[in-house]
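P.,

For your records, the input lines for the assembly:
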Amino acid sequence: MDEVQLDKVRKAYGHFVAVDDLSFNIPQGAIFGLLGPNGAGKTSTIRMMIGITVPDSGSVSLFGEAFRRQHLTRVGYLPEERGLYKKMKVVEHLIFLAELHGLSASEARRRALSWAERMEIAAWLPKKVEELSKGMQQKIQFIAALLHEPEFIIMDEPFGGLDPVNASLLKDVLLDLKKQGRTILFSTHRMDQVEKLCDSICLIDHGRAVLAGELKQIKAGYGKNHVQIEYEGDGAFLRQPDGLVESFNDYGNHVELRLKKGADPQELLRAAAAHCRIRRFELSEPSLEEIFIDVVGKTDA
Amino acid sequence: MPEQPMRNLGIILRREYLERVRTKSFIIMTFLMPAIMFSAAFLPTMLIGRRSAGHRRLVVVTDNPQLAQSFQRQMQQFQPKAGETGMQYEVETSADTSEAARAKLSSEVGALHLDGFLWMTEEAVRAKKVIFHTRSASDFVEIGMVQRALRDGILEQRLAAHNVSSAEVDDLLKRVDLDVIAVKGGAGVGMLLAALMLVLLLYMSVLMNGIIVMRSVLEEKNSRVMEVMLSTVTAKELMAGKILGVGSVGLTQMLMWGVMGALFGSPTLSALGKVSEGVHFTPAMFIFFPIFYLLGYLLYAALSAALGAAVNSQEEAQQWQFFIILPLIASTVLMMPVFSSPSSTFSTVLSLIPFFAPILMYMRIVAQQPPAWQIALSIGLLIATIYGAMVLCARIYRVGILMYGKRPTLPEIVKWLKYA
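Structure tokens returned:
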């Protein structure tokens, strides 16, 4: 069953079209990546999914029904722009937000304690929000999005501003929720994270879907004509006009390149080995980052 | 989960109320405000009534000894009686009207040997231009005394020239006291004090709580709490919860002022004695106070909430805030004319205008109970205006709270009103 369904959704603010004819489905229990460059319309799309704004045309369905506000107690949302009431005590804030999601105060308190233990932040519960660091506030808000055990969870850039330890703590929780059959929408422009977590994606640009589907299929569609090379020394071989390399992206400590049609990777390896020390040479599908740059670059051109 | 439309509103209202009542500023204001009101109403009266004691020396310069004597005699009546504190005036006369004498007196005043001198030559009197040299040119009480003594002294001299005896002159000049006695239902001097206190309190409450609403909307917007709140509640619920929450805080404060007033009010008034004589309150003052507070507050809070949502910083807010509270400030300016003639057409019309009604209709009720239909009409118009303001402001609010960065122009705000 599809937990979430967007059908030909369109939203314009005056002359500016934020979301244009956007459709996608998220199956129950999947992790779905809503991707796109800054200003592509990700947040506008999410806002229509939780009733902050209403689409000009098209429809949004949650849990197999046309959108109703009552659905919202089954949705958890971690907004990209994070904020809490600074003067409130952490535990009271969690209870307040959980009550708005339909929980009783006592149940909310019980769950807040157990989640705080799990997120290693229990000692901070009696403090005021303003005494917490940014990262800790983010963990609090993460808990707030999950306290009412939502079936559909929206995470807008959940790892932004977190150190690796806490980011991995969050990632484990999300994977755990997936195992429990929850559906997760993950909005980001950080492709490396999506690649590790998502089952399917929708890449939007200028409010339109430019690439959508299961991650595996999308990658397979691009074929294994990508090469990742880690090397020491002169990288001049990349620029040789010998007809092997179609395009490349230099990431500093490694380079990812796309071969021309019919080019032999062994030839490239020989050419590269002649110039520098190779530490890794891997034939692969394109990374999502490559696909992103490829697709978005094209539509912008 | 069954639909519970009022549940979210209740949760938001409760949070707003509890968080605010617990703040230090609430506790301080609750106790400080009555003290400020009290001082504003009574201290000036007390200070003027109780002039500082002391001794002042004046010189009258004239070439007419009779006139000097008359002036001296007239000044005599201002001397404090036995047992009273006040200024003792010592008036000397001088017949030296030369310019040198004048310069010498001037330097004496400058050197603090003398408090002032009066240049009252025959010539000056004929020209009706007597000059009083003094260092305390702003002491209007003293200037008033000198002026009266001068006028009565000259009059006495003129009448004496027509063979009127000084006893007769005294009788002629004796002031007739005007006693103002308020008829039941009318306004007395004491009423004015009570009215001013209450109306000022009403004005401050509406103004301050409106500003609190604006600030807290702005804070929610800037801290981005809005984003997460809107994932479960509607902008309307959020705005209504905020306005009602802050409004209840105001009502709580008033209740506490009422209790404080009942406990300490009458003993304080009686301790003040003469100053507070005639200060009395009527039940109508207390019944209509919370009503007009609530109505006035709701109107200005709706406007303030919309303003808080439309702007991005305190500085921006302050520039616009003035326009919103302008009618409120205007009401206080119009207070005195309305109080002095509460039943005039001017007052009636003003007090029916919804933006003035909270202050001015209340003022009329305090001054002189207006006809019931006028009170009902002003409340009806107010409620209709509040409804309209809420609908429009909720639209601005809904769009504004999610708009960051750029300051919206007026045409843009008008466009927000049209969004579905």
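Two observations worth noting. The first strand of chain A starts at residue 2 and ends at 13. The two ends of chain A are 38 Å apart (CA to CA).

Regards
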